[in-house]
Amino acid sequence: MAFFAKNKRVVPGFRVTLSITLFYLALMVVIPLASLVFKTSTLSWDQLWHTISSPRVLAACRLSVGAALAAAAVNAVFGTLLAWVLVRYRFPGRSLVDAFVDLPVALPTAVAGLALAAVYSENGFIGKIAHSFGWQIAFTPIGVFIALVFVGIPFLVRTVQPVLADLEKGLEEAGNTLGASSWQNFRFVILPQLLPAILTGAALAFGRAVGEYGSVIFIAGNVPMVSEIAPLLIISKLEQYDYAGATAIALLLLVLSIVLLGVINFLQSRLQRHRLSGG
Amino acid sequence: MDNSIAAVTLPQAEIAAKSNLSLRLKKFIPAGLILVALSYFALVLLLPLGTVLVEAFAKGIGFYLDTLLESEAIHAMQLTLLMALMVVPLNAAFGIAAAWLLGKYRFPGRSVLITLIDLPFSVSPVVAGLVFVLLFGAQSALGPWLQAHDIKIIFALPGIWLSSLFVTLPFVARELLPLLESQGTDQEESSIMLGASGWQTFRYISLPQMKWALIHGIILCNARVMGEFGAVSVVSGHIRGQTNTLPLLVEILYNEYQFTAAFAAASVLALLALVTLVIKRISFRKQSLSIEA
After folding, report:
1. Which residue, A67, A154, B163, B240, has most beta carbons within 10 Å?
2. What is the pLDDT of residues A15-34, one digit of tens each?
3. Hey, are the CB atoms on B116 and A25 less than 8 Å from each other?
4. Closest Cα of chain B to A25: distance in Å?
5. Closest CA to A164 of A121, A200, A194
């Protein structure tokens, strides 16, 4: 404690940075988000319930959450595989692949959405192949799912990659010496150490996917009750000047993201402890 | 005698052959995994990017240039650049201050502030736009007053500016925080002890150390401001030639079935993303080099 107090005095700037941070956060984050809560408090329970329990809203929420979960699950497998390949193997083009993993973060969502719609529509590259089998991807929930897979990749790879790189080789070698097969080694030695990172990455990807708008709306086609996501419903309510309805759905999404933030913080603190104790 | 030797050697040879086979199989595991991972990568990430670049030139380079040189497209690009200029410096300054505060000091309520900084990342962009409509829209408490004084925020540039500020607030702070945390305060303490002022210490000791992380954060913040769609789409009102940013123009062109034009506009943003990835890569390398050194 004494060290701490001294510390505070020696390095200057505590009061300046504290004032700037508090002022900016109050202005830019607290007041705007409080306006949402305030607006909700002016609605009656009946109004809220009426909006949230309408079939169209329920269907949209189910789709947003369901597709986000499925996309996070797929990326948990393939994102981990991609991280594994990038960390463990050397092959031509590796650093290019590594750089491109961040594409969904750098590419504007509207561009991603436009591109995905083009690839998976009936005359697109993959859409054509799917169409010849009688499957339709664009304008269905599968389209929503594909857009969310695209959006989620970097979260998985970038969370798993550093943990995988830091993994102690000794444990694996011990496994090998004791006669474990590669699969056994992966399943019982490596996977348990990676699991916190995979879960954290999946939670981050899920959080991003639930609220995702730009990359989804082009490919989704936004058919009510079928391929309409919750964020889009907020916009269509706003366009009809139904501020109460838009607010109710937004509050639902806000609460979900705050809960998720708590879960992610918990997972991340466990991940850090894991990494510290693991070396 | 001969028989017993044969009995001993045969199973050994068998075991050797078996492990040879599994060894040979093992050699293929990396190749197989690389193949699967790269196919996933190409299918999910490269294919959409390639499609944008190919479709943009579907009607030739002349059409491409005509689309981008139309006054509407030029205006959209100008507005997008203007927003980046008005948002990035503010959020970079805030990011440095916040990361300094949270990285160099421990105090009660610190984790609450970190959570508040993270919030804009976890909130849906549509919700981010909506909150500003609720604050400043015509139906809000402030609405009539704003109207009486002829101040336009929603469906005008200030609304786009505010929602862009909100959405990109965490980037620089989040990038700098782990770095400042890991560096501790030893060097700053020595500098102060040796008689440097607080500003000198920051300018000559701390800032050079955070240079590459800062660039990394700024480039990500910039990419997001220029590409933001959901939040801006809620507050902009899509007034052509006035409140249309480049991503909004992409949507409008698409909705008007001008697909090639939409892809042409999108290709400019895709190029921005590629440049972002390159600078991100360089700054990441330099940063890890400087940490190792």
Report:
1. B163
2. 999 999 999 999 999 999 99
3. yes
4. 7
5. A194
Touching check for B57 and chain A: CB below 8 Å?
no
Pairwise CA distance, residues A84 & A73, whole Å: 17
Contact A100, B278 (CB under 8 A): no
Which stretches of A43-177 are assigned E, i.e. beta strand? none
Q: Is pLDDT at A3 greater than 50 in this prediction?
A: no
Say which residue the tokens 């961040």 belong to: A102
C-alpha span between B1 and A270 (Å, rounded): 64
CA pair distance B134, A43, nearest whole angstrom:
13
Phi-psi region of B237 (alpha: psi -120 to 50; beta: other; left: phi over 0): left
| Residue among A8, A95, A111, A259 with most chain B CBs within 10 A, to mutate | A111
Distance of alpha carbon A189 from alpha carbon A180, whole angstroms = 10
The answer to whether the CB of B134 falls within 8 A of the CB of A247 is: yes
Tally of CB atoms within 10 A around A170:
9
Is A89 strand, coil or helix? coil
CA–CA separation, B72 and B78 (whole Å): 10
CA-based nearest residue to A151, from A228, A90, A75:
A75
If you measure CA to CA, which chain A residue comes closest to B275? A106
Residue B197 sits at φ, ψ, to 5 deg, of -80, 170
Other CB atoms within 10 A of residue A195 CB: 16
Place of tokens 């990430």: B45
Chain B interface disruption, residue of A9, A10, A11, most B CBs within 10 A = A11
Residue of B nearest to A207 (CA): B122
Helix (H, G, I), strand (E, B) or coil at A123: coil
Distance, in Å, from the CA atom of B106 to the CA atom of A5, rounded to the nearest integer, reads: 9
ipTM of the prediction greater than 0.95, yes or no: no
pLDDT tens for A200-249 read 999 999 999 999 999 999 999 888 888 999 999 999 998 888 888 899 99
Per-position DSSP letters for chain B, written without gaps between them:
-HHHHHHHHHHHHHHHHHHHHHHHHHHHHHHHHHHHHHHHHIIIIIHHHHHHHHHHTTTHHHHHHHHHHSHHHHHHHHHHHHHHHHHHHHHHHHHHHHHHHHHH---TTHHHHHHHHHHHHHS-HHHHHHHHHHHHSTTSSSHHHHHHTT---TTSHHHHHHHHHHHHTHHHHHHHHHHHHHH-SHHHHHHHHTT--HHHHIIIIIHHHHHHHHHHHHHHHHHHHHH--HHHHHHHTT-TTTT--HHHHHHHHHHTT-HHHHHHHHHHHHHHHHHHHHHHHHHHHHHHHHHH-
> What is the pLDDT confidence band of residue A6, given thresholds at 50, 70 and 90?
very low
Distance (Å, whole) CA B238 – CA B256: 14
Task: Tell whether B230 lies on the interface with A, counting CB pairs under 8 A.
Answer: yes
Q: Which of A49-53, A70-74, B6-10, B233-237 has the lowest mean pLDDT?
A: B6-10
Provide the pLDDT confidence category of residue A254 given band limits of 50, 70 and 90.
very high
Q: Three-state DSSP class for A190?
A: helix
Chain B stretch 15-54, residues whose beta carbon is closer than 8 A to a beta carbon of chain A: 26, 29-30, 33-34, 36-38, 40-41, 43-49, 51-52
